[in-house]
Design brief:
Helices cover 53% and strands 8% of the residues. The chain is built from eleven helices and five strands. The radius of gyration is 19 Å and the shape is globular.
Amino acid sequence: MKEFDAKKQKENIVEFIRDYYKKNNLGGVVIGISGGKDSGVVAGLFTEAIGKENVLGVTLPCHSKGEDKEDALLVGEHYGFKMVDIDLTDTYDTFQKQITKLGDYTEEEKKNSNINIKPRLRMASLYYLAALYSALKGKTYIVAGTGNKCESYVGYFTKGGDGVSDINVLGDLTVEEVIKVGEQVHVPEKVLYKTPSDGLSGQSDEDKLGVTYADITKVIQGEPVEEAVKQKIKRLHENNLHKFATPIYQKCE
């Protein structure tokens, strides 16, 4: 397999962004900055492509760890773009109060729903800000996605949440490749090499998935892995295919 040229790919992504912005007469970007490597790399790429003055970073804490917000602010300070904070904790708590009116559900029964409502609230906030800043600045702002190829392959994203975006520059890069591009745009090391987690469940990504990103990459690239691991990744992939397309009934004559 051809060696990954991180410098060339970084340059290609920057050019891809610039071409898309020129073609569609766009002006700015809104990025949810989580304090993790993916959003840090996306921030670095957009800062280089369209200038820090056109990048808006957003922290969206929701019963989150303080360290994640600190790391997110580090990214904003490092690249010099504007950062705003929308604390969704009260919004989430208000939503929970409404859910209690529907029934006496246990925390275990609500666990998955609770985890997924957070990225959905966050994405709604990002799109609100994109529309607001488009009006304020007189130029169109869009929302950048931060998902990578490994996450996408196993469906590790929330429908209607972090799976939604207007442009995704990491979608064809594995975790390892994202890190290499991150080195090219000089993402702060504390962020770039941080153990990936969703910041929601209290677990690392790999603990939650039950497989490593390295093994997901191997499966994507057709390299050998332990059979049990291969089958688990295959199940994750197949069980989440519904996240990629909405079936539309075609009427018959």
